[in-house]
Amino acid sequence: MHVRGVHAESSIPVLRQLVRDNPLGMLITGVSSDEHAFLQASHIPFLLDVDDESGETELGRLRGHLARQNPQSKAVVDALKRPDKPASGSNVLEQEVPVIFTANVQHYVTPRFYVETKPTTAKVVPTWNYAAVQVYGRATVYFDGPETSAFLSKQIDDLSHHTETSIMNYTGVGDRPGPWKVEQAPERYIELMKRNV
């Protein structure tokens, strides 16, 4: 992403907060698969884990999940299972993946808004103002094995808690209802849903 210096945000805590406030990110992958498209993108909600919240430099780790039936999931698993893959058996993608988060507020800016420069020079053009964060890193993929169930249980519990309390403001305080919790759904149903992720 091209960002002019005057518009770039360099504060890591501010960038982390934009991700937390706007958790629906676009995961983009470019992986070789014999049956699926090389480039794929999916909008999925993410959680951001940071070990030291007071730190000014820690970037953190993103957690998200995809449906098994998503073609992007299938392509990623295919890439990890390829026998010609250098680190065969590893659950870490070789290529870095970007995830893009965009804030809800964005708008077209007309040249008519430039009241100081337009009348004197006419050197103005329209633009679009928005706030976005692009995150790059190596993806660890859990798709089979005992660690997959543990990861997924933590993921759906944490994601439900975050979205219920931070996005919906269901805190149980005052007249606000309490947050929905995964254990409120039938256990057998949740296990069935987890097998599809």
From TrEMBL:
One Pfam family here: FMN_bind_2
Organism of provenance: Chaetomidium leptoderma
Protein name: Transcriptional regulator
